[in-house]
Amino acid sequence: MNAQSFVDMCRVLRVLNAIRERHFGISLTYEQLSKLTVAVLVDRLIARAQWPLVIAVCQHLRLPPEDGVNRVLGHWACQKIEELKQNRAAGRATTDSAKLADVICRKFREFPGVSYADVAQKAAECELNELATLLLENEPQIDRQVRMLLKLDQRQKALSRATESGDALLENEPQIDRQVRMLLKLDQRQKALSRATESGDPDLIYLVILKLKQAMDKAELNLMLRKFPDAFILYTQLLREEAPNHLLALYRQEDDFCNQALYHLDSAKAAGTFDVREKQNCLAEAEKSMSAVKEECYSQVLNDSIKLLKHQAQFEEQFGQPFTELSLRSTIVWLIEHGENGPAENLRKEFRVGDKQFWWWKIEALGKGGRWQELEAFAKAKKSPIGYLPFVEICVKYKQMSEWKKYLQKMSSHEHQVMANIKTGDLTNAANIAFQNNDDHLLNRVMSHCGPQNRGLSEQILTMKQELAKKSGK
Amino acid sequence: MTPSAGPTSADSLSAPSAQSSGRVTMSHMRDANRRMLFDFLRTFDGSKAIVWDGDLTKQFTLIAGFSELKEHGVARMFPLKAGQAAPQCDVEHVLYMTRTSTDRVRAIIDNVRGVRQDDRRRHHAVFVPDSSTLCRHKLKEAGVHERLESVKELAIRFYSTDADVATLLAPRSLPTLLTRADWSPLHEVALALDQLETVFGQATRVHYMGDWAKKTVELLGKKREQDAIARGHEQTTANQIPLIDDIIVIDRWIDPLTPLITQLTYEGLIDELFGIRYGTALFPKDRFFQKNQEKTSSSAAAAADNKTKKVALTSSDDLFTELRNLNFNAVGLTLSKHIKYLSEQTEERHKAITVRECKEFVKRLPELEVARDAAGLHTTIAELIKESTTSKSFLDTIQCEQEILNCLETERPMPYIEEAIAKGEPFIKVLRLICMHSLVSDGLKAKVLDQYRRELLQSYGHEYADTLVQVQRAGLIRERGEAGSRGIPLTYLSISRAGQTAAFPALNKAFRLLVSDVNEKSPNDASYVYSGYAPLTVRLCQYWLNPGWRSPAVADPMKRVPGATGVVQRATDIGPGRSVADGIKRSVLVFFIGGVTYAEISALRFLSSKDENYEFLIASTHILNGDSMLTSLNDE
């Protein structure tokens, strides 16, 4: 059988007996209590200021702390504060705030989870800000504390307090979010911010930032945020979405050239091809930021891009083709593909295109344009800095069976010869060349291209590999 | 007998099946998520409609099916789109659900603004996993706050795609950390770990490696402290026997090199070539054997994506469980063994003489059919992969990677990279190689770096400059030596402290990252997943198992790892966790902040299979590969 209901009943009877004592004089029957509910009973005891009894009742009946002990203590502290206020108003001798804060805090320490912040708010309502602040320092939940401080608007004071005794405060107020919320309520902004950053909880920091944004002007806010790098970063995330212009101003103020450059590059992209002048302006701004951060490589390339845009505008008129979205490579490839070698050569010189790069581009362009004779002439004119494999590749790509043979003999390295033969589909020849040159690695490569239809060849290659292994073994 | 119990499973790398008793799996997390979701739905009396964004819908298929949502009163579902008014349907509650992200709030605002005056339904905004201050603020600012009955949060954080893997599906975490220096993702990870510990019990120890990991563990500590205070010092998880004894938190950025290298496991290659999302991948449909019934069902939806076939890649597919962790070079062999076994089994019908034997055979037919379909499916996928892996461009890339890793050229540009730039091969592919080159060479010589950047921008256009800047900020490309400290500042501090971080050759020597005699078919070392390269992260996990990070035997290599390291010992009322005595391995959760690759996951599974005492569970912010990592860095 479950003994729980028996235990519960005993507890209730014990309470009913206790309040019947002469000293308290509340005689209730069990039925009456059931009708009245325990909560109401607790309220009545609070109203009579029977503090020890009501706390005992709460604990004995195992009421959850937020409905029971913590609430009672809250009322107790509020009553104390009220007394202090009335005594002061009447000019009577009374304890000072510090002593009262001490009494309250000492009592509260016995009961973790009780909200210092709520009591501090009461103090604030009674215009006892000093007391409120003292209490608040004991509020363990930082977010409560911060919120309340912000409410109290004790910015300067809170700031110094927070920086002086940051950790000591933390020990007293365990629940950060309570602390911050309370600080905000108290309008102790900087302290709220400081607490929130300590907590490492981005959500709490955003809460403070949003509050501060409403209450302060931009310059003041920027100044305050600069002292808290973590909060500053979150602030920039917020601005990124809401006010990009303001963000740029902030980057300027902070001498953050890298982010300035990124901002301008982004604007250049957004400008699109519709407004070339605008695009150039953005690129010029980006270029400036890049040279400020000593990234000469980028600033050079960006400078080139601005110049290229000018040329491209001209080409657009000349050829009736959109150019401004093309890279230097695509521009040169288009020109050569369409037989415009002169302008292509000029671009190459102006933008100091590397020799190898240019050869690759030109081969691609000639292939694209089907200019096979020109390609042959190009191969003969000078020694290729990139070998002759690319020539074979481009011929294979455009299925020019008769063309690729012209370049096969030009190859000096066996590696390229093997590759070329793989490209043209002559796997047997590829395998033979690799074998003749004792290149096991290349044999593997040929092997990887063998499908089910080359079963004979793959067996041959295996024998070749074995022979090579024997040779190198000896 | 299931097919996986056949002869092919002899050299299988897969962990013991999830059903084996006592094994800790991510299904606990999934169950917890389901409870959370259903309890949440129950708080709304009566019928409900959910209006949610596409990504979230897909994510939730990992938690519950539509039929289950229906059982909990969800009558209708609509996609959440910006610019649309609240959908019309006869329900009591309309839930607008989206992930916690301010750019999705816009869509909710539009919907709620479109609620008609005479609308009697109650409307709620629901954010997964947190209803952040910013989201609430946006709703309030737009003035729709009053029209909403409530703004709620549904704290589902982990999504489990497999028995041993769960991620936060948060690919933005890495760029947020690296390009914005915004540490919020670390706080999200801390919250997720906290949730994990409420489900699995409080781990006895939390180990961390790297600066992000350190900060995350600190945040986790603060969170637990705060919760204890809020609860009035009563502890709820500390006196529950932990299912996970140890948690290891590792930064992706102590090892940014690994994701850049092409993964060579079956699953890794599928991800590299086709991309895996939410445990499924899309393949060209025409390559697959079509079943008759599939052909006839020509609804409008099927016609829409006629060209692709969606394949679920999870541990529920026995054959895939076996194949996924293999080096691709071993896949063909395993597949053919498997098919041989299947045909032998099918041949048994000829041996069935008695009625009883026939009955036995018929009973097994459906099972054989499933196995046959799986074999057909994976043979086709393997064929598709093979087409790519034998292409010149792929082979050249792999060769170039090998040359870079072996430090063949640290003073000049790699010829293949120059060629790839000039040919205009995919930008991200080229960038991957350049980043590798820079990381392995401990920064590039100024001349080389400039040549790469210049040629890249000439070839692809200045539109790519911002990506380069972000990649540079992340420390993936930089100038060698002291000069690296000028120019664009880095965001991940431990990488910028030049001299303190070990250059690749030193790390390689200390941890034996490059292994020359790797056996791809029956591996004896985790390096098989990259055909001869073991990721630093994997070696760290290996050393954690044996001999332990603080053992003097590995003191020297451990010193070379960039970033902070340490362990937090938790106070518990209970002694050590579950005993190892009854043959149950202890579970260790490894959390990768900033992403993990499929190949790394396979390597950790390999370590689990070889270890007698421990088994890894793997968690991460997301799963990535080199392409997705670099793309995300400049993906606003």
TrEMBL record, chain A:
GO terms for cellular component: endosome; HOPS complex; lysosomal membrane. Transmembrane segments: none annotated. InterPro entries: VPS16, Vps16_C, Vps16_C_sf. One of its GO terms (biological process) is intracellular protein transport. Residues 114-168, 169-458 form the Vps16 C-terminal domain. One of its GO terms (molecular function) is actin binding. PANTHER family: VACUOLAR PROTEIN SORTING VPS16, VACUOLAR PROTEIN SORTING-ASSOCIATED PROTEIN 16 HOMOLOG. This is Vps16 C-terminal domain-containing protein.
TrEMBL record, chain B:
One of its GO terms (biological process) is vesicle-mediated transport. It holds the Pfam family Sec1. Residues 1-24 have a biased composition (Polar residues). It comes from the Eukaryota. Residues 1-26 are annotated as: Disordered. Belongs to the STXBP/unc-18/SEC1 family. This is Vacuolar protein sorting-associated protein 33A. It comes from Plectus sambesii.
